[in-house]
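Appendix C. Worked example: VANG1 protein
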Amino acid sequence: MSATMDTESTYSGYSHYSGHSKKAHRQGRDRHKSPRSKDGNRSEKSVTIQTPPAEPLLGNDASRTEEGQDDNWGETTTAITGTSEHSISQEDIARISKDLEDSVGLDCKRYLGLTVAAVLGLLVFLTPVAFILLPQILWRDALEPCGTVCEGLFISVAFKLLILLIGTWALFFRQPKADIPRVFVFRALLLVLIFLFVFSYWLFYGVRILDSKDTNYQGIVQYAVSLVDALLFIHYLAIVLLELRQLQPMFAVKVVRSTDGESRYYSLGHLSIQRAALVVLENYYKDFTVYNPTLLTASKSRAAKHMAGLKVYNVDGPGNNASGQSRAMIAAAARRRDSSHNELYYEEADHERRVKKRRARLVVAVEEAFTHIKRLQAEEQQKAPGEMMDPREAAQAIFPSMARALQKYLRTTRQQQYHSMESILQHLAFCITNNMTPKAFLERYLSAGPTLQYDRDRWFSKQWTLVSEEAVTSGLQDGTVFVLKCLDFSLVVNVKKIPFIKLSEEFIDPKSHKFVLRLQSETSV
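Step 2, the predicted output written as structure tokens:
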């Protein structure tokens, strides 16, 4: 009975909110009619044509949450916004068309590079076979007989081509992880080198063998073997340039997120700026905590509250300019600066107290729920197989008892937009299936995790812009700075060269470790 009452109270906010959805949509359209209104401008800036994501467990109320609200405000308040998801502006249409053009250009560039590489690879593997088969087809009767050494060369060519095929597949035929703005210089140079190499071999083959119809078939086969050997050496060169060269750390890279100042350090080798940017982004998604813009609204609202409390009176009449008023407001804000740090201190202390209190309630609620499901498992083992619960049903059975505490904790820590009800149920079922403890279940919610931990479609930035004063194909150097921008924030990357370290050796004789005990008359020894 208690679980049912908790369930009804937990989801009462959702039914109350859905009853006012039509009213909210009408008010949103009314706000759009006035282009100069504040709400209308905000609606145009927040418009999106993407499909709205799944409804979070607790609603996206972080932007409206204030520290001074009551603990039960979410159950007694109906929030109506003016943002319409079905409207679109001319700026959005222009941005959408530009994004589509950019995506089409990137796709064409990607497929063009793959096509050129595939055609060149096919030409490389068919050339030695053609060198061996063409004399047999064109002047077979005039060829000298192939002896034992010649037949052994056939086996050598076959195995070398197989090794080259496997190595090429492992090195080049990989699924691309990202689209880079410029071509990969070393890979392009290798493709040009291979083309010139094969072209020179065909030119020599056409002039010295096809035109003269050489009858020394063993020499022709040996010529094909030399081509395969040279291709294997080019493959070794590709491994050195593409894989081994970048392994030795040469630079220390500091990555700073522009909004909250979170930073990390990484070690990189000899890479171009665009490839270093890819490495930074790969590490960002697993090392940096997920970006939460609602955590930055507290400082902005606090500053706005201080400025809203200031009143400026124009005693000189309407003809005075606004610069004097601005200076007066700045001076008044400076005089109030001595007391603002006390307000900040007490606000942070009160927020920490609320977080600790709701965290304790959440831990107790989850531990009680897990003990309940353990007791159910012990009892269900003695019942009929038809009455057993699977992990999904068990998660749905114990979720209402912890939903209220989890809801309040996520709202207090402003994490509710990252966790939908379905994701929480899936995680709970996963923990039950693998016999995980309540502490293991709560690890995802007690602290913000990296971006990889959350829904990929909702929190991954699909588009990054690389901003650099240097060419993105140039290598990293000491003092290089570049910026990676996405929609909400940017990553500032500063490159420093690892200094040269000189180690010296000092030998200590083991026999020199001798000690003397100094006794004094006042000691107790």
